[in-house]
Amino acid sequence: MTQTSTDLPSGAAGETFRQTLGRLASAQKGAARSAPAYSRFVNRRIGRVLAAWAYRRGLSPNAVTGISALCTFSAVALLALVAPSTLVGVVVSVLLVLGYAFDSADGQVARLTGTGSAAGEWLDHMVDATKIVTLPIALGIGMYRFDVVEDDLWLLVPLLHVVAGSVYFFGMILTEQMRRAAGVVSTAATGGRAPWLRSVLGIPTDYGTTCLVFVLLGVPTVFLVGYAAIVAATVVVALAAAVSWYGQLRRLASAAGAA
């Protein structure tokens, strides 16, 4: 069925889907030089298409966040409740990819419509915080329930992911809030030499990489090696970031004391 202009939001009346995409592109935040490759080059573009679709159907940013949560937590439930297989792995991966893309789309819709709010940002962060914890927990539960591994030590890998992922996320949010309280507004570096290099180096800790590794779920040995590599990289990055953040806050405190 062809949608008439009266079904569209006022800003979309009379414009094509391609034109909506163009307006979204002009409303984008600058792509951070350090943003991992999948998030920067793939997820944001998929999210833009989904944002155009959501906008033309009059969905609010919070509704888009809700769709993201539905996709993500459906994948989480599958990991805990259904025996691992190639099909399950593909479905889980697709759901996680869609959830991540809609997570990008909600902010794009908010910027396009000028309807961003503190409450919407809070909701988005709460969904992120929940998925960071529940995804590896669900994986561990599924591994235990369906005897995926012979050595139970492998069950410690998703538990380590819970700790590293949640600490890294909390540290990032807390540091940003404390920097804002000190009057420092973070800006993403969008230039510099070889900006693609940092994006490529960030692939192991990219959430998109985590989404895609579940395609290997039907081959447990290969999956666990890939997943363990992601967790190890997350631990290293979380530790390095914690040292950097602590140093930044000490310097801010020193500068404030000197002033």
TrEMBL record:
Q: Where are the transmembrane segments?
A: 76-102, 153-175, 196-219, 225-246
Q: Which domain of life is it from?
A: Bacteria
Keywords, ordered alphabetically: Membrane, Transferase, Transmembrane, Transmembrane helix
Concerning InterPro entries, the annotation shows: CDP-OH_P_trans, CDP-OH_PTrfase_TM_dom, CDP_ALCOHOL_P_TRANSF_CS
What PROSITE patterns has UniProt attached to this entry? CDP_ALCOHOL_P_TRANSF
List the Gene3D superfamilies hit by this protein, alphabetically.
Answer: 1.20.120.1760
Q: Which family does it belong to?
A: Belongs to the CDP-alcohol phosphatidyltransferase class-I family.
This protein's name: CDP-alcohol phosphatidyltransferase
Q: Which organism is it from?
A: Cellulomonas phragmiteti
